[in-house]
Each structure stands twice: as structure tokens, then as C-alpha cells.
Amino acid sequence: MTTVRTRIAPSPTGDPHVGTAYIALFNLCFARQHGGEFILRIEDTDQVRSTRESEQQIYDALRWLGIEWNEGPDVGGPYGPYRQSERGEIYRKYALELVEKGHAFYCFCTPEELDQMRAEQMARGETPRYDGRGLLLSDEDVQRRLAAGEPHVIRMKVPSEGVCVVPDMLRGDVEIPWDRMDMQVLMKTDGLPTYFLANVVDDHLMKITHVLRGEEWLPSAPKLILLYEYFGWEKPQLCYMPLLRNPDKSKLSKRKNPTSITFYERMGFLPQAMLNYLGRMGWSMPDEREKFTLEEMIANFDVQRVSLGGPIFDLEKLSWLNGQWMRDLSVEEFAAGVQKWAFNSDYLMKIAPHVQGRVETFSQIAPLASFFFAGGVQPDKALFAHKKLSDDQVRQLMQLILWKLEALRQWEKERITGCIQAVVEHLELKLRDAMPLMFAAVTGQASSVSVLDAMEILGPDLTRFRLRQAIELLGGVSKKENKEWEKLLASIG
After folding, report:
1. Same domain for 229 and 124
2. Less packed terminus of the chain by CB within 10 Å, N or C?
3. Has residue 215 been placed in a domain?
4. Which pLDDT belongs to residue 26?
5. Using CA atoms, how far apart are residues 166 and 57, in angstroms rounded to an integer?
6. Are residues 211 and 128 in the same domain?
7. Please, are residues 254 and 315 in contact by the beta-carbon 8 Å criterion?
8. How does DSSP assign 51-105, residue by residue?
9. Residue 119: inside a domain, yes or no?
10. For residue 289, is it within any domain?
């Protein structure tokens, strides 16, 4: 009997996303329910954005939730390496095999040629896609250009007509026309694979039997199925999970809802409550109870109980459920949880140097530093009154700074300052014009410790969350403003 093997393959390019945890949970439950194995693979072929720091955050966040894996980069296993960046020669071997079999071809088009191709297609009212010009090159021409070291990619051939039938465990057979498919790049000019080649090769070599992934990948499923056929491999069973949604039914995004797992840890949510809530996303227990453990979910798991309606990720509902878990703790467990959350020596040692010189008694610490131990803060709207800027200009300044901070990869005081500085200089302002606004938004107070020190200690998740709250307090950002200000953001260095 074949062992059920599922996997999760996150990219270490930013904060660990709740969507990653959601898909990981369902893969874990499916594998465990069938007595199988769950694998963690790191998809780090984007060498510009991938970092080992982000990779470690993925491990830490999933383990905080209670999600463990049988194989992975940190625990090893029989089918490693489990980082895609360490499997380059494997991918190249299989890409060349496709070329030799006539299922893929070399493309020497420059970015400029591809841009012109798309522009001409759009001018004719056509859907932009690769036109197959690389297929017209002779073997002699291809070999000459390869020998000359010309930059190139390897693309897969795809049919131009007919339909591909995608067997989905939730939807049944889904028909997708081939004329929607582009001739997908499999190997990039840097010699690294794209998602499509790497995932098919890895899933096959790692003996993955079932792939549960987000439904955003369903439209491109024909490419994956075709690759399995080209290689002559048995494809895994496919299950396209519904996407998490904001309360307004839009796709879950950090601009509307905190999406980082570390944010919820930092806010003081219990991991078992968080995991319980993610388990409720589009799935339910047979008896419909809302509160259940991971073990209970595994014991009762049936993927056919997944609802295709977009599950709503609602912070208020999560908070309610967390409260149910909180009240079930013993007093000793509650006290230990509080201490571990924020009243531990590591966190206090970060705060102490900034508070010690500002107090005369220990009793003065609480009012001065209380914002370090809060989730959100409630600043008085009057704190955002500005002598130099109008209310609209204040909102614009804060929104631009927030967007810059959302893109910041390394959360350090100097880099935080650099983000703020870039915005104020572009708006022909001074740093002192922005800092009182940052202070009010982040601390909720009129005076306390240095706001830049506070932002560094609080971390990116809480800082950004409080800035969003402050902007909402001031009236939020309209769709028109959002569009205009995003254009302005693009011009800021």
C-alpha cells in the first residue's frame, strides 16, 4: 500500500503568512489522517528575495502553531536536499531531458523583444502571450547561439487548441482551454527553475501522493499535468483549496488584515486557538463544534468536508475563539503564558535601557512603557494635528511611510529611519515633520521613549498594524487616493 505523502513548499521571501499555515495545516491533517507523512520543502529559487532569516521564521512560526513535519531542510530525510536552491543540477537534468524529447525548446528572446511582442498583441486586442518564435530556430542556429553563450531560457511546448481536464478532489473534473496557456518558462536565464518545473520534479522525486494547494494555482494546472505527461510520471492527486478572504470578500492581503503569523503571536494569541481557527477556514467538524484540538481535527478530517465558498478570516471571530481557549487555561498556565508572551527577561532587557533614564521609581514604568505590552493603541486624534500639513497631507504622509515600511526586509533602526527619510525628502519635508505623527501612531502617547527605538523593539508587525489603525482613525484612504498615492510611491527612491 502506497504511503500518503503531502507537502508544503513556502518561499522564504518575507514574513510567514497565515495562508501558508492554513495550507500546511490541511496537508498535515490529510497525511496524518491516512497514517502518512508531511514534508516541508523550501522554495527559494528567487535568490534576490529569499533569505535564511525568512526561512527560519517559517520554521519558528509553524512550530509555534504546533505544526511539525517528517522531512525538511532542518530535519533531513531520504529525498533531500529540501531547499530548491540546492537542487539546481537536478532541475537542469530534467529540463534538458524535455528538450531532447522535443517537449521544450530554447528561447533567446530579450526582455525588450518580449515587451514589444506583448505590446503589439495588446494593440491587436489579443491576450499577451509568447508567440512561439523560438520554435522556428534551426538546430544549427540554436547550437551556435548556445556556444556563443547567449542568454536564454527553456520553455515548454503547449497545445494551442482543445481542453485539459484537471481532476480536482473538491470540484471534480475541471476543463481549462489550452489556448489560455502560455509556453511557460521552465529554466530562467540564471539557470534556476521556475515554480512549474521545480514543483513537478520535486513532487515526483519526493514521492508526493497528494497536493493540497491554494485555488489560485488552478488556472495554471494544465501546465503541471502536461509536464507529468511529458516525463511519463504518475501525477499526484490534486486538491485546490479555497483562498482565505477578508471580511469584504477580497483576497486576504496585509493591506487590509494582518497576514503574518508572527503578528498573531506578538499580539498574544494562543497557538492552539490560532490553529483551531485556521481549521475552521472552509472546514467543519462532523458535529459542527467550533472549538477543537489539532488531534481532534486529524481524527475527524475528511477533505470532502471542505467548502468551496471563500472562508472569511475575521479578526473579531478569532479573538472570540481565543478567549474561549484562554478561559480553559488553569491559572498557572495563564500566568506562564503571560510571562512567556511579553513579561520575559529577553523582552524586558530590550525595553529597560530606554526606560531606565526616564523614571525615578519602578511605579512610573507602567504609564511610560505600557504601549510595549499592548496590541493596538488608542491615540487621541488631536495628537495628529499638524502645524504645517493639512489633514489630507498627514494621511498621505503616513500612508506612504506605511507602504515603505511594508516593503522593508530588515527591521533595523537605521533602515526604518531610511524609509521615513525617503518619503519626507520626496515630499520636500523634514524628518521632524513626520516623527510626531509616527510617535502618536506607534505609542498612542504624547511623550515616551524614542519612537524609532520603540518601532525597532515592537517589530514590523505591530508597528505596521498601529500605523494602519492610526490612518483609519484619521479617515482611511479612499480608492481614488490609494491609486494616486501608489503612483507617487513608485517615484520614491
Report:
1. yes
2. N
3. yes
4. 98
5. 34
6. yes
7. no
8. -HHHHHHHHHHHHHHT---SBBTTTB-TT---BGGG-HHHHHHHHHHHHHTTSEE
9. yes
10. yes
CA atoms of 233 and 225, how far apart (whole Å): 10
* Cell numbers representing residue 89 in the block: 543540477
Exposed (0-12), middle (13-18) or buried (19+): which is 490, by Cβ within 10 Å?
exposed
Domain ranges, residue 442: 381-490
153 forms beta bridges with 107
Q: What's the one-letter identity of residue 401? A: I
* Strand pairing category for 153-156 and 185-187: antiparallel
Q: Measured between alpha carbons, how far is residue 153 from residues 96, 145, 148, 235, 402 in Å?
A: 11, 12, 15, 25, 37
Q: pTM to 2 decimals?
A: 0.92
Closest CA to 240 of 256, 222, 261, 258: 222
Residue type, 408: L
Q: What's the rounded Cα separation, in Å, for the pair 175 and 44?
A: 31
Cα–Cα dist 483/493, whole Å: 18
DSSP sequence for 270-330 = -HHHHHHHHHTSS---TT--S---HHHHHHH--GGG---S--B--HHHHHHHHHHHHHTS-
Judge contact between 396 and 481, C-beta under 8 A.
yes
Per-residue confidence (pLDDT) for residue 447, from 0 to 100: 81
Residue 302, C-alpha cell as written in the block: 475528511
pLDDT score recorded for residue 256: 67
Co-location of 400 and 454 in the same domain: yes
Instruction: Look at residue 255 in the predicted model and tell me its pLDDT.
Output: 67
CATH of the domain at 409: 1.10.10.350
Mark 2-32 as b/e (b = at least 16 C-beta within 10 Å): eebbbbbbbbbebbbbbbbbbbbbbbbbbbb
Cβ count near 433 (within 10 Å): 18
Active site residues: 254
Please state, in angstroms and rounded to a whole number, the distance separating the CA atoms of residues 466 and 474.
12
Residues 231 and 91 in one domain: yes
pLDDT score recorded for residue 94: 98
Q: In whole angstroms, what is the distance from residue 87 CA to residue 99 CA?
A: 19
The pLDDT value given to residue 251: 85
State which amino acid sits at residue 97.
E
Which distant-in-sequence residues (6+ apart) come within 8 Å of 139 by Cβ? none
Q: Residue 240: left (phi > 0), alpha (psi -120 to 50), or beta?
A: beta
Q: Measuring CA to CA, which residue among 131, 184, 182 is closest to residue 154?
A: 184
In a domain, 336, yes or no: no
What own/partner pairs with CB < 8 Å and gap ≥ 24 does 354-358 have? 354/449, 354/450, 354/453, 354/454, 354/457, 355/449, 358/449
Instruction: Give me the residues of the chain with pLDDT under 50, please.
Output: none
H or E element, residue 154:
strand 153-156
- Kindly compute the dihedral angle of the four CA atoms of residues 267, 269, 275, 278, in this order, to the nearest 10 degrees: -60
Task: Say how many C-beta atoms besides its own lie within 10 A of residue 268's C-beta.
Answer: 15
